[in-house]
Specification:
alpha+beta, 45 strands, flat, 14-stranded antiparallel sheet, about 1450 residues, disordered C terminus, about 30% helix
């Protein structure tokens, strides 16, 4: 063995596949293996071996080389066996207490001993790994004192292992197996994968061969097998008192999760599974390091650690219940070489069929490790003694046979099957490779967690199988691990996200990412089970007729569904739409799964009628423009099938159509003959199936057919019992409500609560539901005590139903519930455990009461559907009836006359309010307004609640937020608008953080309903709003740049050429979803404005990029790539977003206007663009008008003094001159409080309103009252009347006595003085009180108020109050002025300080003013627009 240490280091490193380090070793005078004896891990690092795995491989090789050198020559060597394959990070270099026998003997040798330096570097090797069976954990070493097992018999030793060890693995001394008596009748076997390990005293364990009849050890191998009886080994460490089992090399899988062998069974055969269970019961003290699964072979584990490309492979299920997919061409034991060219081979049972080369741990395994698709094999060649190589498109596989002849046989077989596969040249695009070589469409695919694996597996459900893959790349290449035949599988739910797939060989415990994902997987696997259990015998017999081989409706090939009453064969897509027609139109059954329904008579009926005869009747007049194909959309398919079968639009009419008696008479004659086509035409043109025949012995056509012996006629009539006759194409009639509703039949058990007269707001427990048998037949929904009850407990007629609503899951004690609203203002709550069953009931009920003009709403996945009265469009004079369906965030509408309307996107509404005392729901979109009336209060409240919920934000992604018309989230738009108006010059904008509590509260309000939040200067701080915007983008679910594209954006920064980088940004911008693209443009546009004011706010482009880069990309900020992206977007905003010159000019003008307005507000003056208003003195006359420039800070007192100064009117002590707002249309006026700002009032004036300065005659009396009264509250009786709203709703029966209480915060209305609860309550700050009432309302007294109310949502109300005396009027108005403005209605200092007041020039001279000639209202609106909404012009930029 010393010759091995003198081996040149170049040869030795080349054997380790590390020849790249030869130069470094030789430069340091390390030319032989002996020179490397003193190397350590640190020394190897200095030599340039930086990879830890390479250093470990070199140290292991040195350890083995010098350990063998240290053995004494006179001591017989133990037999060299396969090294134990180990993971590269598992080592046994520590000092162990039990040394290997080799080292024990070496230590006892007097003649030779290891050199001291070697002993210092290399610790003694640990004892060998005890024997193990298959992939089971190794047997523990027995305690001292246990008798060692008897040595095995003599045999031919294996060839010695060369001194150069295999890379990655450590060679150890191994125990050998006992020699078994020969048994030549069977081929050799490896030990079972899961052989039982019994306690001491149990029966002897199996050896390599199967047990003989006498229970002895396994037989000797057949001529082809390799016999490995080793020579007697030296004394071994003491083992447990169990028979010695043959050693199988195995990895230490301590890095795998180990939750207990009892829970994690291996993928093995049935026998192995039973052995596992026995071991679980008796295996105490078993090591925790064990293999949890055998889906990955040892070489795959090593390959994953080394980062090698994925190896192709997979396996088909091979169990007793799984029929072979292809004839087995060859099978046998082969040694398989792992990747990286290791010397270690693993024994594998290999099978070859026409499609796959598969390898297993043993021939009894039900699930293989991997497979190599024959289609991916490009070459098979011999590579040495007994070895051959299988070359695929992504990896090479090396196998070793028992002999050269066996190797050549394998090569010939592989080459032959490869050539046959190439000749077939079957396409496999977008499919999972099926064993039959055909492409299989995938029903469901994705990642799932499988118990026992750290990483997720990629799982695909295709046809009747479930495929398992290591990763998505293997799935893309079509190379899997194994698959499960679903004909022996069963699935069941375990908990919220987990489910089990059970087979006779193993339970696969999967876990999905969400509950919804779990439901989708369960449904897909149940469909696979149904497909696996299907029988194609019926389908083959029906397909024997050529027309039946294609779908009767769309022409798709090989249809496997049928309508047994229409006698047509249809595809799966059309079958789904046929089910939607209802069983009264089409009764759908499967050709492969519904075996019981397919009697001989029914199969024969499909041969006589089938697609050919049926389409001659049903599709006799189909226009080419309306025909569908296999690729038609579900909407087109549904529309076509409704017209074809339910409406009979394309049918061939019978000559007797329209004459009921003649049709019935002809049907009675036809059923006695074999003319099935005539019977079909008569029956579906209106002949009654139960018509009178006139024969007492045979009263029905069915009885006539039975007496005549017409089996097929009887079968056809029986299948069409309850079938609905198609409606005529032109069904005249009065109106939409007079149209004939379809007769829908449905029945089953439902859970029901007692009917309610108010919304079901509180959760109903399961104990509040009663189980009832429910039926829906002929437009009557009845519920019974039980299915055998004769009389119903109650019933609901279809014409009484007005609304259906589906509740979210688990809203009540029953899993799935729905509500039925009726005309009598009652609500019925029903429930069902199955979501699909509840959905079927909803569709059946909807079909029973929705008229044909609105039938398209039935195809929506609606949450709420019903009938409402509404007004919309240009005519608001008369309300009309319409049918509404709420699906997601979209409201669909069909008017009663059948006219279709564009759906409303509720998240894009500009206004959503309830007006007229909860009697009108107002929906305002960009181009239209819709008013929905509360015809019935109960279902109207449900609609309001559902629409408000749908119009709000639904999640944390951009597309789920409330949006503007430009597809920008309303939250983002509100924050950008506010910061642009109030924070462009704020120092440190976006760098400074606001108060966390205010930011959290504001973000919550905006997320809940941004439409109702109004950001106002003074109420909200700039830093709070900016922090809210940043937090919104950081918390986005999918991010602004989306998880799919964010890395591409970051990688684009590596492009050095600026034009190329801009081009890449533009390409990526087009790839973003619409909402993300619009939001990004709006944000970058805003940041572009912010950096224009960097001189004031200190936020240049670089600073903004530092802040927004990590925020938008949701990173930790360690890498500046994100900042580079944002910086590039701001710097090249014009090029990347294609901003034209007009937009840039508009933006510049807008910024300029905003800054001027801010400067004027901060200085208290406004030199240009001031608002000019016409104010009258005492009355509205031409000679009394004055044109006054109104600054933003001017108060009503200052305007009054200005007008008096111009007219040089001296004000006496008791003169109370005030400014009044006069509303001519309402015939009312409002004295302004002296502190009110005038400019906001002017902005809100209508064309019929103006300002006038005159004396306020009642002011002195009001001041006296306020000075003498006790307390700050006013109460008393007044007469009240509410104004009619736009839709003509509201109180219109005159004035009524009501009791009012007015305090400093609100005005309350009570029905009477003794009432404890107010009927209405209004905040004082939202009220405007005018003196006077329109005469046409005929007020009971001349002392009245007109009151306007407007809340934060801009919902408006108006009503009138009348007092009994003028004194009451003054007192109420004085109290209101004091409560609303927090002080006396007149300044305490009077006008004495007037002389000291600085006179400002309010005359329109020498300044750039906004002219006011022409239409005063237009001028006022045009001038007010920029000040009121300075960003209006830039909303589309």
């Amino acid at each position: 063995m010393e010759e091995g240490t003198s081996l040149p280091v170049a040869v030795w490193l080349a054997a380790l596949h590390l020849d790249q380090y030869v130069d470094g070793f030789e430069r340091n005078e390390l030319r032989t293996v002996a020179d490397c004896r003193a190397l350590t891990d640190e020394a190897l690092t200095c030599l340039g071996v930086v990879l830890p795995g390479h250093r470990k491989r070199i140290l292991l090789g040195l350890q083995k080389a010098f350990a063998e050198v240290s053995l004494p020559a006179e001591v017989p060597q133990p037999p060299a066996m396969k090294p134990v394959p180990r993971k590269r990070h598992i080592f046994r270099l520590g000092t162990g207490t039990a040394a290997a026998p080799v080292q024990q003997e070496a230590a006892g040798d007097a003649g030779r001993s290891p050199e001291p330096e070697a002993a210092a570097i290399f610790a003694p090797l640990p004892p060998p790994i005890p024997p193990r069976t298959g992939c089971r954990p190794p047997v523990r070493f027995s305690p001292p004192g246990t008798e060692p097992p008897p040595p095995p018999a003599e045999g031919r030793p294996k060839p010695p292992v060369p001194p150069l060890p295999a890379k990655r693995h450590q060679l150890e001394a191994k125990c050998t197996s006992l020699k078994a008596p020969e048994l030549r009748s069977r081929p050799p076997e490896l030990p079972p994968r899961a052989a039982s390990q019994k306690a001491a005293g149990s029966a002897p364990a199996k050896e390599e061969g199967p047990a003989g009849p006498d229970g002895a050890a396994g037989a000797s191998p057949a001529p082809r097998a390799r016999a490995k009886p080793p020579p007697p080994p030296p004394p071994l460490p003491e083992l447990p008192s169990k028979p010695v089992l043959p050693f199988v090399p195995e990895f230490d899988d301590s890095d795998y999760d180990d939750t207990g062998w009892e829970e994690e069974e291996e993928l093995g055969g049935a026998a192995g599974a039973m052995a596992d269970k026995e071991d679980a019961a008796s295996g105490t003290g078993r090591p925790r390091s064990l293999r949890l699964n055998s889906l990955f072979s040892e070489d795959e584990l090593v390959e994953d650690y080394y980062g090698a490309p994925p190896a192709g492979g997979g396996a088909a299920a091979e169990g007793p219940a799984a029929a072979p997919l292809s004839p087995l061409l060859k099978a046998g034991w082969l040694d398989k070489n792992p990747p990286q060219g290791s010397y270690i081979y693993q024994k594998r049972w290999v099978k070859l069929d026409a499609d796959y080369l598969r390898y297993f741990d043993s021939e009894k395994d039900a699930y293989s490790k991997r497979f190599i698709p024959v289609s991916s094999i490009s070459r098979v060649a011999s590579v040495g003694d007994q070895k051959f190589e299988v070359v695929t498109n992504n990896r090479n596989f090396v196998f070793r046979a028992e002999s050269d002849a066996d190797r050549n046989d394998w090569i010939r077989s592989l080459q032959h099957v490869t050539e046959e596969q190439k000749s077939r040249a079957l396409e496999t695009t977008s499919a999972v490779p099926a064993a039959d070589g055909a492409a299989r469409s995938v029903d469901k695919s994705g990642f799932l967690e499988l118990r026992g694996f750290k990483s997720k597996l990629f799982v695909a459900v295709a046809g009747d199988k479930v495929f398992l893959y290591k990763n998505a790349e293997d799935y893309r290449l079509g190379i899997g691990i194994t698959y499960i035949e679903m004909n022996v599988g069963n699935v069941k739910e375990v908990d919220r996200r987990a489910f089990d797939l059970t087979t006779p060989y193993r339970i696969f415990s999967f876990s999905a990412d969400s509950e919804q994902e779990k439901e989708e997987w369960l449904e897909a696997m149940r469909q696979a089970i149904a497909a696996a259990l299907s029988n194609s015998e019926v389908a083959e017999r029906i397909w024997a007729a050529e027309p039946n081989r294609f779908c009767a409706d769309c022409g798709a090939p090989q249809p496997d569904w049928a309508s047994i009453n229409l006698c047509v064969v249809i595809c799966k897509s059309c079958a789904g739409e046929h089910r939607g027609l209802g069983p009264s139109v089409s009764k759908v059954r499967s050709l492969k799964m519904d075996r019981k329904v397919w009697t001989e008579e029914l199969i024969e009926l499909f041969h006589h009628i089938g697609n050919a005869v049926a389409n001659e009747f049903w599709a006799a007049n189909v226009p080419p423009s309306e025909a569908i194909t296999a690729g038609s959309s579900s909407e087109d398919r549904r529309r076509f099938l409704l017209a074809k079968y339910r409406d009979g639009k394309y049918r061939r009419y019978h000559p007797l159509f329209g004459s009921q008696q003649e049709l019935d008479r002809a049907l009675c004659a036809a059923v006695t003959t074999g003319d099935l086509a005539e019977t079909q035409a008569l029956l579906f043109c209106g002949a009654a199936l139960s018509c009178a025949t006139g024969d007492p012995g045979c009263p029905t056509p069915l009885a006539l057919a039975r007496r005549s012996g017409q089996r097929l006629q009887m079968e056809f009539l029986l299948r069409n019992e309850g079938s609905e006759t198609p409606r005529p194409e032109a069904a005249g009639g009065g109106g939409p409500r007079s149209a004939l509703l379809p007769s829908v039949a449905h029945h089953g058990f439902l859970y029901k609560t007692p009917s309610m007269a108010k919304p079901a707001g509180e959760r109903k427990g399961l104990e509040e539901f009663s189980r009832r048998w429910c039926t829906l037949q002929d437009g009557v929904f009845s519920y019974y005590e039980s299915e055998r009850a004769a009389a119903p407990n109650g019933e609901i007629r279809a014409e009484e139903m007005v609304c259906l609503a589906s509740n979210p899951p688990r809203a009540h004690g029953v899993e799935n519930t729905f509500e039925v609203y009726v005309e009598a203002e009652r609500l019925y709550l029903f429930g069902l455990d199955s979501p699909e069953g509840a959905r079927q009931w909803l569709r059946a009920l909807a079909k029973s009461f929705v008229p044909p003009c609105a039938e398209e709403l039935l195809h929506r996945d609606f949450e709420r559907l019903g009938r409402l009265r509404y007004k919309g469009g240009l005519s608001l004079q008369r309300a009309q009836e319409g049918w509404f369906a709420l699906a997601g965030s979209t409201l669909h509408l069909c008017s009663g006359d059948g006219a279709r309307h564009e759906p409303l996107h509720l998240r894009k509404l500009q206004e959503l309010s309830v007006q007229g005392d909860n009697e009108v729901l107002v929906l305002v979109e960009r181009r239209r307004t819709l008013y929905i009336q509360a015809e019935r209060k109960l279902d109207f409240l449900g609609w309001v609640h559902a629409i408000r919920r749908a119009a709000g934000s639904a999640g944390d992604t951009l597309s789920e937020q409330q949006l503007t018309e430009a597809d920008v989230p309303l939250l983002v738009d509100r924050c950008i608008d506010y910061i642009t108006q109030c924070g462009l010059t704020s120092e440190g904008i976006y760098r400074k953080s606001g108060q966390n509590s205010k930011t959290t509260g504001l973000l919550e309000m905006l997320r809940k309903d941004a439409r109702s939040v109004c950001l106002k200067e003074g109420e909200h701080q700039v830093d709070d709003v900016s922090n809210t915007l940043k937090r919104f983008f950081r918390d986005l679910g999918d991010g602004l740049f989306t998880k799919r594209w964010s890395q591409d954006w970051l990688q684009a920064t590596a492009l050095e050429d600026e034009e190329a980088r801009i081009g890449e940004y533009r390409r990526l911008l087009e790839s973003l979803p619409t909402v993300n693209r619009a939001t990004l443009k709006a944000l970058i546009n805003h940041l572009f404005r912010v950096q224009r004011f960097s001189g004031d706010n200190q936020m240049n482009t670089h600073n903004l990029a530092i802040v927004f880069g990590p925020t938008l990309f949701q990173t930790d900020g360690q890498d500046y790539k994100a900042g580079h992206v944002v910086e590039d977007l701001i710097n090249h905003y014009v090029k990347i977003f294609n901003v034209n010159d007009e937009e840039m000019k508009k933006q510049q003008d807008e910024i300029t206007a905003i800054m001027k307005m801010r400067e004027a507000a901060s200085s208290g003056t406004q030199q240009a663009g001031d608002f000019i208003c016409t104010v009258y003195l005492e009355e509205k006359k031409t000679e009394a008008e004055q044109h006054v420039k109104i600054p933003a800070t001017m108060t009503a007192e200052e305007l009054t003094l200005e007008i008096l100064d111009r007219r040089k009117i001296a004000m006496k002590e008791k003169d109370y001159w005030s400014c009044f707002e006069v509303n001519e249309r309402e015939e009312a006026e409002r004295p302004l409080h002296y502190s009110e700002k005038v400019l906001p009032i002017l902005h809100g004036l209508g064309t019929e309103s103006y300002l006038v300065v005159k004396k306020q005659m009642s002011m002195e009396n009001m001041l006296i009252y306020l000075a003498s009264r006790v307390g700050d509250c006013k109460h008393g009786m007044m007469k009240f009347r509410e104004e009619r709203n736009l839709l003509g709703l509201g109180v219109s029966t005159g004035f009524h006595d009501r009791y009012f209480i007015l305090n400093h915060s609100c005005l309350r209305l009570y029905k009477e003085a003794r009432s404890h609860k107010p009927e209405k309550e209004w905040p004082i700050r939202n009220l405007k009180v005018y003196l006077g009432i329109k005469k046409k309302l005929r007020p009971p007294t001349c002392w009245g108020f007109t009151v306007f109310y407007e809340n934060e949502k801009h919902e408006k109300q108006q009503w009138y109050l009348c007092c009994d005396t003028h004194a009451d009027l003054r007192e109420w108005f004085a109290t209101f002025l004091q409560a609303q403005h927090g002080g006396a209605p007149w300044p305490a200092e009077g006008r004495r300080a007037r002389a000291a007041r600085p006179q400002r020039d309010t005359r329109p001279r020498h300044v750039a003013l906004i002219p006011l000639r022409g239409d005063e209202g237009e001028a006022r609106s045009s001038a007010a627009a920029p000040a009121a909404h300075p960003l209006t012009l830039l909303r589309d930029v």
